[in-house]
Amino acid sequence: MFKHHIFYVSFCAFSKDSKYLATASNDRTVKVWKLSDTSVIMANLSGYEEGGITPGYPSNERSEIPNEAWSIEEVCQWLSSLGLGVYEETFRKNAIDGKELNGLTAHDLETVLEVAPLGHRSKILRNRNLIPEIISCINKIGEPSTTPEEFLCPITHEIMKEPVIASDGYTYDKLAMLSWLEKEQRSPMTNMNLTSAELVPNRTLKMMIQKFLQNN
């Protein structure tokens, strides 16, 4: 699925009903997927930066406000994000803000706003109905991530300060493992006898933990 991103995916979030998934990548795009047997992209947003909302949606300060509170300009930005910027001026002239957007019908789009192609009218209405789910997914992307389980010491269940690899192949926090070895000669994970008391620093994991703590 994620092959549609140019670079690796750095964040993802599911909607509450698990029907939609938002993915954010280092290529500065956010894609919102409708999950099914053949998942399809429902929104393709560019310009994403960590800690903010992508162009075409309200700024981070307004991201939790329902779309009915959008200004006329925010509605026009949303149109542009759908590739329908050609209708921006018409929406401005008719003062279509978020509340008016929610009340639009296919007839209004065709007769009042002069959106002639059926496909464009359908796209506007379909994506309007998805706005709450999309904003919810994008907001989740900006939330602090939970601590990866591999960063937690199996003994203390806290983030490791000095991760070390024991002879059982598992990684523990150094102080916790030294304290364990004073009492036990068995692995905390397998309960098998440890073949050695040697503890090898896990420098790669330590760097990952330090980076995680800096970002959170």
TrEMBL record:
<dbReference type="Pfam" id="PF00400">
    <property type="entry name" value="WD40"/>
</dbReference>
<dbReference type="InterPro" id="IPR001660">
    <property type="entry name" value="SAM"/>
</dbReference>
<protein>
    <recommendedName>
        <fullName>WD repeat, SAM and U-box domain-containing protein 1</fullName>
    </recommendedName>
</protein>
<dbReference type="GO" id="GO:0004842">
    <property type="term" value="F:ubiquitin-protein transferase activity"/>
</dbReference>
<dbReference type="InterPro" id="IPR052085">
    <property type="entry name" value="WD-SAM-U-box"/>
</dbReference>
<dbReference type="InterPro" id="IPR036322">
    <property type="entry name" value="WD40_repeat_dom_sf"/>
</dbReference>
<dbReference type="InterPro" id="IPR003613">
    <property type="entry name" value="Ubox_domain"/>
</dbReference>
<keyword id="KW-0853">WD repeat</keyword>
<dbReference type="InterPro" id="IPR015943">
    <property type="entry name" value="WD40/YVTN_repeat-like_dom_sf"/>
</dbReference>
<feature type="domain" description="SAM">
    <location>
        <begin position="70"/>
        <end position="134"/>
    </location>
</feature>
<dbReference type="GO" id="GO:0016567">
    <property type="term" value="P:protein ubiquitination"/>
</dbReference>
<dbReference type="Pfam" id="PF07647">
    <property type="entry name" value="SAM_2"/>
</dbReference>
<feature type="domain" description="U-box">
    <location>
        <begin position="146"/>
        <end position="216"/>
    </location>
</feature>
<dbReference type="InterPro" id="IPR013761">
    <property type="entry name" value="SAM/pointed_sf"/>
</dbReference>
<dbReference type="InterPro" id="IPR013083">
    <property type="entry name" value="Znf_RING/FYVE/PHD"/>
</dbReference>
<feature type="repeat" description="WD">
    <location>
        <begin position="2"/>
        <end position="43"/>
    </location>
</feature>
<dbReference type="InterPro" id="IPR001680">
    <property type="entry name" value="WD40_rpt"/>
</dbReference>
<dbReference type="Pfam" id="PF04564">
    <property type="entry name" value="U-box"/>
</dbReference>
